[in-house]
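User: Good morning. I'm curious how 2-oxoglutaric acid would be positioned relative to this chain. Could you predict the structure with it bound?
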Amino acid sequence: MIDVSKRFFDLPFEERSKYMSTEMRSPVRYGTSFNQNKDEVFCWRDLLKLSCNPLSDVLPFWPSSPADLRPAVVNYSKNTKLLYLMLTEAILESLGILVDSKKNENENDGLREFENGSQLIVLNCYPKCPEPDLTLGMHPHSDYGFLTLLLQDEVEGLQIQHEGRWVTVEPLPGSFVVNVGDHLEIFSNGRYSSVLHRVLVNSAKTRISVASLHSLPFESTVQPSPKLIDEANPRRYKDTNFASFLDYMSSREHKKKSFLESRKLT
Ligand SMILES: O=C(O)CCC(=O)C(=O)O
Ligand SMILES: [Fe+2]
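Assistant: Good morning! Here's the predicted structure, ligand included:
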């Protein structure tokens, strides 16, 4: 995936620019920063966003060059989805929401919604930068979805905020970084907290990463699980959905955990 991503970003600009779109809902979007229509300050980042739902509908829109990009992303999306479902099952179990799946099929209908969930693959390229101290590859943000599986190449850059400090996430070959997103924070009524992260750039090496963002189906309402709410644990977040996030993204600059903040009740 890293290799084919690199070759996509090495294509001439005329080829890459065919996939530029101002439409946040487009099945393919090549661009820079987060949302180049609204961001006041651009990030030192190029991105190719590929929507994966449903694959048969979106595939014809994905880049036809490099020739192996489509099959590589299809294969990658299927495998990351399986890993995501395994992690989600463990998370639901940790929250006490999932009962033994072999014993009680109906109780676990909740997991089915995750199986039919949305998936976006984002290829990120952070070119080497002559003045890395003056910019960022990505400004601090949390991911909107449930979980993000992130693959990074060997170049450092990703940092997460931990106890008020920025901590570099060392790239480990062949491993994924798993980020908790806003939807999981909302769904768990705050028991899981979405992670604030950012990307630094450097003057020596271009950095490539591939993020696979997973959540409930696009049309679903994301809300705190009723099983986690009682008198002692009141609901802390308003309902949300993918459409309201996209409207938010299209209308203003997305900073820090601003979307999540807008969903908080307390
Ligand atoms: O490039 C990275 O390491 C992080 C990318 C990221 O945060 C994102 O795509 O949302
Ligand atoms: Fe992110």
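The radius of gyration is 19 Å. The mean pLDDT is 89.
Let me know if you'd like a different ligand tried.
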